[in-house]
Amino acid sequence: MMQFIKTQFQKHFPKELISKLSFHYAELKSSFMHNRLESGELNGGKFAEVVLRLIQYATDPNHTYTPIAESLPSVDSLVTKFEHVPNTFDDSLRLHIPRALKVIYSFRNKRGVGHAGEINPNLMDATLVAYFGPNRPASRSKSATLTD
What we know:
Blueprint: H1 2-10, H2 15-33, H3 37-59, H4 75-83, H5 91-110, H6 123-132
Helix pairs in contact: 1-2, 2-3, 3-5, 3-6, 4-5, 5-6
């Protein structure tokens, strides 16, 4: 199934982004399933960064996006920018997905995952990232693979 999705996405988006998307999705899913909560939340942030680049690519008339090797503009500025994209794009692409990604990304930066902090990642945080992110993972007792 994952290979089919990758193949379909590669018809419309840069292969570099789809490769990163697939990798971080698999890592997020695997980390959650194996109770590596901090790692899963960190990969959730990376997954969000890739999806934000995909939205940049999709909504820009010249199909440009921030290269992987460069830092993204602030997530807040990207969300605001996407909100002002012409209404010819679906509200999910312009509004809902970027706002959900902002929540996921904020766990990486503001909950002690990407930086040292007072609050440690916990099951509740990791569950939100895993379920709110790419999809609802299967039982945590099962092994995650790219073929799921």
